[in-house]
Design the sequence.
């Protein structure tokens, strides 16, 4: 879809549709009042008759409003004016886009970007509207033989801003919103692919294709033979039971100067997780194709920053692997020597992600990174703790944790910090090795992060557990694209080239 910004009076807009807000109880927004005046009370008369209450999400489409140049006027219920918050604003935008698609309006001028949202400026409102619009239009139908296309889909959306001085803010918001949306779409497309297509090699191919699109991005694939030579035995053990070979993929984006230490993003890429010998229950096991949500997020974020041409050096490490049951599969009771030299007693083969990540976290030391953030659908315990609303954040470096929390608040892609105190480390004690790969039921998200922290002593590190946020179950099953918005905002902030607070 094409997006643009302009500043103008609503009555002068000539478009297929003009979109304005109505508050509870039956109260026109400032822009709607201007239309009402030009139409000689046409809108206010409708409200008095009770055609629209103004509750959040209500829609009323009007045709041929007197003295209005636009063919249609869409009245959008926005709830109580003083209670309009970020979540409600995004929901209103998404429902507006869906309604416009159903009306056959191929273009529209939207004045909802002028609504007052607590603590948010024009940049935020326009960017969130772009992201919500793109998310609302997303459809994964690549593998369907019969595809249903909208009759006359919305192709162009113009956001109105209050003054001409805010046009540059709006234009920057569209640029950022589109890049992030493209990253989210890439993430969702890869994650939604079935595991018979999306293998570790497929992840590498997607990364290579992305690198080929951008001059300042290079691609490297580390094979199982190379991993074995480097002593990445924990990583290799997880993939031993699969016919699909493990592949560690590296994307190197060079947007900064040569002296700038890179930020490294490490994504867990379990393209299918059966649980191994500690096999998972059959119910919902199909959703274990989403266990590569961290890797998909790294791919999406790398696309977003490349499109934004951010002046920063970033390395994306995609740890592709498949955990299957086979005579060669690793077992509970096995002791693995990791690339770091530390040994791990396997208590459960379904605690495999941390074994893939620990060797990857050791591998990326060679890049002398300034910061490393790993992203993983790591623990069901995170869903118990935080539900599906917030990703779990743990870090050994307070300033980095604060950066990520700030980015989550700015982007609306929420994360919540959990403690990483030394007291939790005792849960990993083993009588036979340096540690176990499982800390028990209590504080499972935290003890998993404690395990990873033992391999991150040489750089500033944070861990995002996205088990509850990377995909949805149920009737709307599918990848969400999170935490691409959070990670991209984090990297935008690092360039000190953002207009947000």
Sequence:
């Amino acid at each position: 879809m094409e997006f643009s910004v302009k500043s103008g009076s609503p009555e002068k807009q000539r478009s297929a549709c003009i979109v304005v807000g109505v508050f509870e109880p039956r109260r026109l927004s400032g822009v709607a009042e201007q239309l009402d005046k030009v139409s000689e009370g046409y809108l206010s008369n409708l409200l008095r008759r009770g055609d629209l209450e103004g509750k959040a999400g209500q829609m009323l489409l009007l045709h041929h409003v007197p003295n209005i140049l636009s063919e249609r006027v869409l009245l959008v219920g926005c709830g109580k004016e003083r209670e309009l918050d970020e979540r409600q604003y995004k929901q209103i935008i998404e429902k507006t886009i869906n309604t416009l698609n159903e009306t056959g309006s191929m273009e529209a001028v939207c004045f909802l970007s002028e609504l007052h949202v607590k603590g948010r400026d024009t940049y935020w409102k326009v960017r969130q509207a772009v992201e919500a619009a793109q998310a609302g239009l997303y459809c994964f139908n690549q593998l369907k033989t019969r595809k249903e296309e909208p009759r006359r889909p919305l192709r162009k959306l113009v956001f109105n801003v209050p003054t001409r001085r805010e046009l540059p803010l709006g234009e920057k918001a569209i640029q950022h919103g589109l890049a992030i949306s493209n990253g989210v779409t890439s993430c969702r497309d890869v994650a939604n692919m079935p595991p018979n297509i999306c293998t570790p090699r497929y992840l590498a191919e997607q990364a290579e294709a992305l690198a080929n699109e951008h001059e300042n991005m290079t691609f490297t694939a580390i094979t199982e033979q190379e991993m074995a030579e480097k002593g990445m035995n924990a990583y290799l053990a997880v993939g031993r039971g699969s016919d699909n070979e493990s592949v560690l993929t590296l994307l190197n984006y060079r947007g900064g100067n040569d002296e700038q230490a890179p930020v490294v993003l490490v994504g867990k890429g379990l393209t299918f997780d059966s649980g191994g010998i500690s096999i998972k229950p059959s119910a919902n096991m199909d959703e274990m194709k989403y266990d590569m949500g961290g890797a998909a997020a790294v791919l999406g974020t790398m696309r977003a920053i490349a499109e934004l041409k951010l002046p920063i050096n970033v390395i994306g490490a995609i740890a592709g692997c498949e955990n299957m049951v086979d005579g060669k599969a690793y077992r509970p009771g096995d002791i693995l020597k990791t690339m770091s030299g530390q040994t791990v007693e396997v208590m459960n083969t379904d605690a495999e992600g941390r074994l893939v990540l620990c060797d990857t976290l050791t591998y990326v030391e060679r890049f002398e990174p300034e910061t490393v953030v790993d992203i993983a659908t790591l623990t069901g315990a995170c869903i118990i703790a935080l539900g599906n609303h917030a990703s779990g954040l743990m870090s050994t470096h307070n300033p980095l944790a604060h950066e990520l929390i700030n980015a989550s608040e700015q982007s609306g892609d929420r994360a919540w910090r959990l403690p990483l105190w030394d007291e939790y480390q005792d849960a990993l004690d083993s009588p036979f090795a340096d540690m176990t790969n499982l800390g028990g039921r209590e504080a499972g998200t935290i003890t998993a992060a404690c395990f990873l922290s033992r391999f991150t002593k040489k750089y500033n590190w944070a861990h995002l557990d996205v088990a509850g946020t990377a995909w949805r179950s149920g009737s709307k099953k599918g990848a969400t694209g999170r935490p691409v918005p959070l990670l991209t905002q984090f990297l935008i902030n690092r360039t000190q080239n953002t207009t947000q607070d």
Q: What stands out?
A: The chain has 14 helices and 20 strands. Confidence is low (pLDDT under 50) at residues 497-501.
